Amino acid sequence: MYNLLIKDLKLGVNPLFFVFPFLMGALMLIPGWLYMIVVMYFFWVSAPNLFAQFRGANDLLFTSMMPVTKKDIVKARVSVFVILELMHIVIAMIYGLFTIHLYPNVTYHFFAPYMGFWGLCFVMFAIYNIILIPMFYKTAYKYGAAQLVSIAAAMLFAGVAQWVGIENSYVSDIFNGSGADNTTLQISILIAGIVIFAAFTMIAYRIGVKRFLKVEIL
């Protein structure tokens, strides 16, 4: 599986997609911005282009001719997506640390980039993965509908979460007020988000494997 993952990373992923998180992450330096948009660039730009590259190179047929199992094919491809998702979040988190120290007196109307906020970002990607991966592996070829539905669901979660964060004073206080200084609370939200991300992605992977096993590769 390791060699298959390296093949996907070297041959299937344009090197620009490893630079992209650094470029988009710099948007975190805008004071008081809507920071959820920063990590959304993964499924707006990177993911559809990755699907297009793999499909354009007829990678599925090529990979199926190699001495690998269908399970490993799914595992390698999901791993590529997870690696890039983590890059987008972790690099944005680093920029976010600079933002907090550069603009200590900014009034945040949207979520501030504290640890709890990143927990929400992990949940957003969890929702994206659990819809995208099973839908895509019904065919392992058509990705348009899977992309549209998964992006819509992830953005709906982000929109509702941000709306609640603005309208509900209790939630606002947790993420932008006194709760932002509660390290234990912030770490708890972050860990919860990571756990949900890991669980949803693992479930999506297993469903994807089951569906891909039924796909006939011509």
Termini distance? 22 Å
Inertia-based shape: elongated
Percent helix range: over 70%
What structural class do helix, strand and pairing data support? mainly alpha
Classify the beta-strand content into a percent band: under 5%
Order of helices and strands: HHHHHHHHH
Largest sheet: none
What is the helix tally? 9
Mean pLDDT figure: 92
Number of strands: 0
Oligomeric state of shown chains:
single chain
Tell me the radius of gyration.
18 Å
Low-confidence stretches: none
Describe the protein's architecture and organization.
The chain is elongated. The protein has 9 helices and no strands. It has helices at residues 2-12, 16-25, 36-56, 59-64, 70-102, 115-136, 144-167, 169-175, 183-212. It starts with a helix and ends in a 6-residue tail after the last helix. With 218 residues, the protein is mainly α. Helix content is 75%, strand content 0%.
